[in-house]
């Protein structure tokens, strides 16, 4: 039984990653919970619950308690956090200190909800870090330098675009268009083009296997099963990567526009740094084929995907635990100045 641990959590809309100081990322599970509506009891959490999405009987619901990067169901998020903290740490003598990352555009009310849910889930103290900063640290950038670094973090619920210099965010834009919206766009396209209804998981599989933001050199295909909207019977369709290019056009365009907006607001000196250093992409959404090529082509700036794009934010959140004393000092000073 351990005494106490410092824990970093990437509380994502699609998945939760838990980083323990000294051990690295120890847990990575979908942020999905299956609940019995009659008893309000947790039946499954994480990967087991994700398998139930769209396949549950009437009394069981598989839900995602986080939407667009923020808490949409407070009670379930708190219970889910408690479950993951216990699963990652086991029994502890002292409560752990937690650092949780949040999208750069969250409001004070949303921040407070995260802190309260975390404290109720068993943290002795909770600190927050903004996603682009955590992503930059996790990607191995030295964010304390007087140089401009541009981060594009495409998650499940939000896309965060930020220019970082001297350890802080200079310009940022957080939009609620990300991986989940790409899945929705695929579902809509398949319904319109093939008169077929597909589930959330099938849409995600299409995105992962043949989805693209830039044309493949050779067309790729995947068979997808669903329900025919005219006959109501099951049907099977072969979907190509060119279909995906058309389906994903809208959400990808919104992400490109957010990048352009941030570049337009960036001070000239930092813009010069970015054109030299390039744009760094993190998050699961950055793995969509051709996303880096498309950003490079539309901005004229070299764009690369971080080495460990999916875990970048969790690793950065965990690494920032080294500065937990500084965060503690700042929060104490802030509290003291509020009560003066």
Name of the CATH homologous superfamily of the largest domain: ATPase, nucleotide binding domain
The CATH C-level class name of the largest domain: Alpha Beta
Characterize the largest beta sheet: strand count, sense, and whether it forms a barrel. 5 strands, mixed
**What is the number of helical segments per DSSP (H or I, 4+ residues)?**
12
How far apart lie the N and C ends? 42 Å
Helical residue percent band: 25-40%
User: How would you sum up the global shape?
Assistant: flat
Structural classification: alpha+beta
Number of strands: 18
How many domains, in number, for the residues? 3
Radius of gyration: 21 Å
Mean pLDDT: 88
Low-confidence stretches: 332-340
CATH topology of the largest domain: Nucleotidyltransferase, domain 5
**Sequence of strands across the biggest β-sheet:** 3-2-1-9-10
What oligomerization state is this entry in?
single chain
Spell the H/E element sequence.
EEEEEHEEEHEHEHEEEHEHEEHHHEHEHH
Which tags fit this structure?
3 domains; disordered C terminus; 340 residues; alpha+beta; single chain; Nucleotidyltransferase, domain 5; Actin, Chain A, domain 4; 18 strands; five-stranded mixed sheet
């Amino acid at each position: 039984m351990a005494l106490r641990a410092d824990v970093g959590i990437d509380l994502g809309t699609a998945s939760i990653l838990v980083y323990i100081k000294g051990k690295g990322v120890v847990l990575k599970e979908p942020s999905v919970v299956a609940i019995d509506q009659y008893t309000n009891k947790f039946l499954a959490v994480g990967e087991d619950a994700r398998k139930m999405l769209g396949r549950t009987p009437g009394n069981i619901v598989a839900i995602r308690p986080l939407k667009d990067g923020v808490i949409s169901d407070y009670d379930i998020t708190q219970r889910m956090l408690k479950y993951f903290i216990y699963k990652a740490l086991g029994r502890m003598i002292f409560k752990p200190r937690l650092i949780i990352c949040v999208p750069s555009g969250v409001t004070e009310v949303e921040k407070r909800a995260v802190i309260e849910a975390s404290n109720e889930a068993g943290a002795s103290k909770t600190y927050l870090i903004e996603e682009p900063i955590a992503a930059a640290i996790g990607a191995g950038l030295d964010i304390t330098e007087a140089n401009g670094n541009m981060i594009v973090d495409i998650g499940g619920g939000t896309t965060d675009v930020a220019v970082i210099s001297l350890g802080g965010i200079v310009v940022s834009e957080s939009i609620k268009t990300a991986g989940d919206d790409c899945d929705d766009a695929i579902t809509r396209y398949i319904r319109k083009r093939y008169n077929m209804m597909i589930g959330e998981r099938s849409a995600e599989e299409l995105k992962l296997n043949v989805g693209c933001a830039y044309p493949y050199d050779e067309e790729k295909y995947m068979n997808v099963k669903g329900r025919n909207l005219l006959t109501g019977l099951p049907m099977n369709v072969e979907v190509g990567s060119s279909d995906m290019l058309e389906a994903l056009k809208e959400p990808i365009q919104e992400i490109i526009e957010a990048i352009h907006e941030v570049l337009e607001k960036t001070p000239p000196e930092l813009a010069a740094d970015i054109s030299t250093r390039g744009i760094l992409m993190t998050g699961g959404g950055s793995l969509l084929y051709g996303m880096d090529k498309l950003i490079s082509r539309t901005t004229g700036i070299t764009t690369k995907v971080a080495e460990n794009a999916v875990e970048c934010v969790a690793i950065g959140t965990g690494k920032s635990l080294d500065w937990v004393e500084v965060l503690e000092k700042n929060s104490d000073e802030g509290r003291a100045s509020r009560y003066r």
